[in-house]
Amino acid sequence: MLLVVDTNILVSFFNEKSKARDLATSSFSELLSPNFALYEINAHKQEISEKFSISDEQFVFALKLMNTVIQFVRAEEYRRFFSRAKKVSPDIDDIDFFALALKAGAAIWSNDKKLKKQPAVRVFSTEDLVKLLGL
């Protein structure tokens, strides 16, 4: 299974006890995400660190771990799908995720329920994946 990982899943990666982190590191799927998501994560480093009560070292460790299990893709590689993604995505902030999913023929992994309100790209929540994998 090929999945494009949304930012809300990436953020949950900083919680050591997160089911999303367990799933991502279990090699159940090939995982992709837009490269700009890393910039978002770094821009919100303080918020994320406070939310999960983690140190700078723990943040860096989680970020490195994330980079080992998720392939981050530059926008140039899926840019030609932006036009279609704009029509499909229920949220303008998620256009990159939809464009990458359309380019890769992948589903999206997100806990954002509104993303399921479109027919073009399949969207799985963490709960959906846990059920699907029988965990």
Q: Bin the strand percentage.
A: 5-15%
Q: Provide the structure class.
A: alpha/beta
Q: What does the main sheet amount to? A: 5 strands, parallel
Tally the helices: what do you get? 8
Work out the number of β strands. Answer: 5
Shape: globular
Could you characterize the architecture of this molecule?
This protein is α/β, with parallel strands linked by helices and 135 residues long. It is 49% helix and 13% strand. The protein has a five-stranded parallel β-sheet.
Short description:
Strands 3-2-1-4-5 form a five-stranded parallel sheet. The protein has eight helices and five strands; from the N terminus they run E-H-H-E-H-H-H-E-H-H-E-E-H.
How is the topology of this model organized?
Layout: E1 2-5, H1 7-12, H2 19-24, E2 30-34, H3 36-43, H4 45-51, H5 56-69, E3 70-73, H6 82-88, H7 95-104, E4 107-109, E5 123-124, H8 126-133
Parallel strand pairs: 1-2, 1-4, 2-3, 4-5
Helix pairs in contact: 6-7
